[in-house]
Amino acid sequence: MYPTHFARNAGEPTAQIMRISDRHWHALADDEVVGRGEASPRPDGRLFLSIDAWHDAVFDQLAQAMLAGLPKPLFTIVDETDHALRAQWDRAGFSTGRREWELLLPSGPHHATPPPEVKIIGVGRAERDPLRELDRAIRAEVEASAGWHTMPAEVLVRLDDATVVDPAKYAVAAQADRYVGLIRLAQIPRQPRIGLIAVRADQQRRGIARALLAHVLDSLHRVGIHSASAEVDDRNLAAMTLFESLGATRVGRNLELVCR
């Protein structure tokens, strides 16, 4: 443990910041924990910070200690309507890197079919190797065009190139001897979440993405699940149009903040 002492501000406790592990900090006042900080690595290697503190000054002290002890850039996520939390991260030197809409989609039934030569293979039934080949091809296409900074943070490329960690979460669109589109569904019990939907560049604008999304939503409807959530970068107009065509509503917006 590595203690750091901070002076008392008016009306605030005197805090002692303890780094209790490589990625965890505690703020102590009169031997009581009055704040905690954590740095959580994402699969792509980026570090996302979170701080839970009872006082603004303690938040600032934790942020100062964490930023001093970690390599930049550093990231965090806040609800756009949480102005107090946003102000705390602003004081620490963070600024907006991207905005994502939180969407809620009704589970169905929907009526969307793929082109005649394309077949939808349901969640958990895709073969691993063709799925990984498709995933790598799509990532290369997106990186060469819009860039992965427009994709949800959770699907950024991994450092170990293991881009498909759990094939059981995917449904795919198959054409002849190859996969041409995919959708990933996280089966969270109360609110399943669509984490990624993408189609090969040469197969776009043919209704494949819409058919994949409708298939997954219909499968949820059949088992009594009424909705799914998704996140979309607010600059991705094509994705917003797709989701809203199947009844998605905007329920919130998150900011990804970065300190460089």
Automatic annotation (TrEMBL):
Keyword Acyltransferase applies: yes
Family matches, as Gene3D superfamilies: 3.40.630.30
Boundaries of every N-acetyltransferase domain copy: 126-260
InterPro entries per record: Acyl_CoA_acyltransferase (IPR016181), Bact_Acetyltransf (IPR050832), GNAT_dom (IPR000182)
GO molecular function: acyltransferase activity
Pfam families per UniProt: Acetyltransf_1 (PF00583)
Source organism, top-level taxon: Bacteria
Keywords (A to Z) from UniProt: Acyltransferase, Transferase
EC number(s) per entry: 2.3.1.-
UniProt KW Transferase keyword: yes
Class of the enzyme per the UniProt entry, highest EC level: transferase
Protein name per its UniProtKB record: GNAT family N-acetyltransferase
